[in-house]
Structures are given as C-alpha cells and as structure tokens.
TrEMBL record:
Keywords: c-di-GMP, Cell membrane, Hydrolase, Membrane, Transmembrane, Transmembrane helix. One of its GO terms (molecular function) is cyclic-guanylate-specific phosphodiesterase activity. PANTHER family: CYCLIC DI-GMP PHOSPHODIESTERASE PDED-RELATED, CYCLIC DI-GMP PHOSPHODIESTERASE PDEF. This is cyclic-guanylate-specific phosphodiesterase. It comes from Marinomonas alcarazii. It is an enzyme of class 3 (hydrolase). PROSITE patterns: EAL.
Amino acid sequence: MFGSVTALVPYKKKMLFYYGFLSLLISVFLFTVSLYFFLLNDLDNKAKAAENILISQMEGIFSELKRVVDNAQLSCEEDDVKRLKRLAFYSDTFKEFGLFDRDFRVFCSNYGAVDIPIFSSIVNRIERAAERKTVSLVHSKSLGNPTLFAFYQGENGIGANGLAPPVRFSTLIDPIILPNYFYELTIGKRILSSNRNGIDSDIWNKEVVSLDDWSMRLDVYLPSNLYWQRLHSLIPFIFIGWLFLFFAFYNAHLIGIYFRRSLRHCVRRAIKNAEIEVYFQPVVSLNPGEPLELEALLRWKSLNHGQVSPLVVVKVASQLGLMDELTWLVIRKVGAFYREYPDQLIDIKTSVNVDRFSLLKESFAPKLVSILEEYPELIGRLGLEVTETSALNHEELPVMVSRFEQITALGIGLSVDDFGTGYSGLDFLRRFPYDTLKLDQVFIANLKDDQFTRQVLTSISILAKELGMKLVAEGVEREDQLNDVRLLGVDRVQGYYFCKPLPKDQIITWMTFNNAV
Ligand SMILES: Nc1nc2c(ncn2[C@@H]2O[C@@H]3COP(=O)(O)O[C@H]4[C@@H](O)[C@H](n5cnc6c(=O)[nH]c(N)nc65)O[C@@H]4COP(=O)(O)O[C@H]3[C@H]2O)c(=O)[nH]1
C-alpha cells in the first residue's frame, strides 16, 4: 500500500523538514516535561519516606524515655546511676539520660547526682504538650552544639530527658534523600541536620514536611543540576523518540493521503461539495408531434480517479448511505438546468434515476415537495426512474404502493427502469402506477438475432399498451435496431443512434439543431 502511495506523493523536502522539526520539538518537550514531573514525584516520595522515618524515630525516642521513666524513683543512688548508664550504653539514639522531678529539676544523670533546672521555655512546652513530650536543640557540655534534648514526664511527675547527637538524624535521612536531593531538618528555628550548605545549584522546587508535635520541619530541595544531569542521560532516548515520532507522523501523513484519495472519501466529498455533474440524454418519441424527453445521468470526473462510471458512484454512495443526498443533488441540478434554460425546456420532461430504498423512506415525499418548492420549474416536468435491484418483501410492498401514490399525486411520472433485468415481474407492473416502462438495452442488443427475445418483447409491449404505459427502448445504437423497436410498437427511443448523454449546454445545442426546441 505504502509503495504505491509514496509513488503518488512527490518527495517534498519542506514536508520532511516540517515533520522532522515537529517531531523533534514534541520529543524534546515530552522528555523534558516528563522528567521534570518525574523528579517532582520522586522528590515527593523521598520527602514522604523521610517523614515516615522521622515519625518512627520520634516514637522510638519517646518509648525509650518512657522505659527510663517507668522504673525511676526520686533517688539517685548508685543503682539508679548504673541503670541510666546501662540504658545509655544500649541506646542507638541517646548518649546520656537524666531524671527530673515535679519541679523540673534534673536530679540524676548517668554521671551521678546533679541539680540542674530545666529552662522555663522547655518546661512550658512540656506542660502544654498533650503527652508531656517535647524536644529541643540546646548546647550541651558533653555532646556539643547543638544537641537534641528529648523530654518526657510520666504520670507520677518523674520525667526523663535524653541527649542525642544530631548525627543520629542525618544517618537516618541521608540514605533516603542523598545524593540527588538535599535537605534541611530544623527544630524551631535551629538546624538539626542539613546538607544544604556547599551545594552549588539553583533550587527548582521543594517539598516541606512538618512534624508540628515536635516543631520539626524537613525541607527537601530539588536542585537544578540533578535535572540537567538526568536530561543529559536521556539524550539517546530523546533521539529515539524523535525518530519514532517522525516515522509515525510520516506514516500518518501517507495514510491520510491514501484515505483522502480513496474512492469512498472522494465520492463522499464530491457529493458533499456538489461536484457531481449531470448530463442529459434525449429520449426521442416515435409518435410524430410529441416532444422529446430527457434522462438525467450523473457524471463524475475525480481529480484522483479520473472519469468514474455512474454505476460505481451509485454503488459507493449506497455503501456510504449517501444515496438520498445523491438523488437530491441530481434533482436540484436538473431544477437549475430548467431555471437556466426556461424557454428551451418549456415542453421537455426529464427523468432522474432513484434508488428503490430511498423511495421506501417516509421522508422521501416530503423532501421531494420541498425541492419542488425550491424549483417550481420542475413541477409537471420531473419523472423518476426506479430500477428493481431486489425483490420487495411483504412489508415493503404496501409501503411502496403508498409512496408511489404520494409521488404520482405530486404530478411526478414514474418509470420502471431496465425492465426485464431486475425483479420487476409482470404482476409487479399491474400493482404499481408506473406510466412508462423502459426496456433494458440487453434486449435491444439481442433483438436482431434472438427470436425468443423478440417474442418476450412483443408480449411486454402488448401488456404495456393494455396497462396504458408508454414503452421506451434503451440502448438503440443502429438504424436496424430503431426499425426493429418501431415494429414492436415502442413509443420512445433512447440511444447513441440519436445522441449520447451530453452536458447541459451541448444538449441544448443538440436540441436546437434537431428542431426539438
Ligand atoms: N451502450 C450503450 N449505452 C447507452 C446507450 N444509450 C444510453 N446508454 C447508457 O445507458 C445507461 C442508461 O441509464 P440507466 O439504465 O438508467 O443506467 C444508469 C443508472 O442505473 C445509473 N445512474 C446514472 N445516473 C444516475 C443517477 O443520477 N442516480 C442513480 N440512482 N443512478 C444513476 O447508472 C447507470 C449507467 O449510467 P450511464 O453509464 O450513464 O449509462 C446510461 C447511458 O449512457 C446506447 O445506445 N448504447
């Protein structure tokens, strides 16, 4: 398929450049934007993971302090000190423990008895806290500046404090956040742990995690150099995406061309844009003094498919469900023809081919009425030719009879087209109010040599006369055929012998030459 299409499509450098540029833009855009959102999402995940680990760390800290408080007394004997030393030795977090009393004075530590008042600001926080827990960053002689102090007061009033170096927090958070992102963990306004300093990069975004119970805040930053680093490693993928999109666009372009040039699409467009032409072929009367009639036949010359047979156009239009539109288009063009040549066509009737399924529709007669209002020139001059391409079923038969009655009531003549080739039997003729019967051209072609055809046509001719129908012979090409059909009692003749279907201006010229106007 594509081979033949590429042959149709001239090689266009501009188009290739356009698709190349467009696909490059899209590929770059997709990768750069997706990377940014990917990193934002990653940043968010990292911040959440750090938050979870901080929460569990804080819970661990306080359950440790609770254990210290649970067995403590208001004494600082050797055993009490030993116990505190033991707890500090086994603790992952704390290096020192202390015990304080109801008056918030630390009376015992793992170094022995002490008497150190707790800062009033911390006392306030302990008293305000729901579970009497708080943390603070304070200078400590033994652990330096800053040191994390955690306080917990039990129900009996005895409390414990633990001292931890901030490094404990960085060892927890660093593996989650480093090396890609950087962070700052603060308690109140003081920094507990941070790797922010010394990082030489713009900050593109940050995630903030707040642990309000401990006045803790973790800011995780997205540095711009991480983005550029990652983007750099994506260059081969951007290139592959570019190629992929380029081929996708190019193939879509070819498919689009193929589709636009497909017969179905062209027929649809031709009907929609009224590009279908109508030619006219005379139907000459053999009864002296009677004016000729015309048959309107569609013609379509497609830019892509050349001259397309009307039978093909009709077939494709019916596959596309556009037969009604096609019929209205042809009838309107016939109306316009009458409007253009009112004097020349004053006595001339024109018949138009109609699909039987269009006729069966309830909307058919009302639509016809509206076209007659649009083109009153057609009133009394329009005829419809119906070809029986399939047999009518029991339900369709009465509907068809009533449609025919509605149409004849509008003064529109009805002809059976191609009689003898379709499903129109003799019984069919009696049921429907046809005024004309058109014999298919295959009978006329065989008439000379085929005795049987001659007998059949003689019987049809007798029946047509009995039913008051006019008989038309189609496809008369030679004089001997004309003589033969004349002998059969045919009223009108249509065929190349007289004239081929012609465009509107040429048929008017032909009629003028043949004294038909
Ligand atoms: N060999 C030969 N052919 C002759 C001679 N005289 C006329 N013809 C051709 O016989 C066909 C007569 O039209 P049809 O039986 O209604 O058969 C029509 C009709 O069934 C259908 N058609 C044409 N226009 C329309 C239309 O507007 N609507 C619908 N629904 N069908 C149409 O397409 C068919 C073919 O149309 P055309 O190709 O125009 O073919 C026309 C005409 O050009 C002759 O002496 N020798």
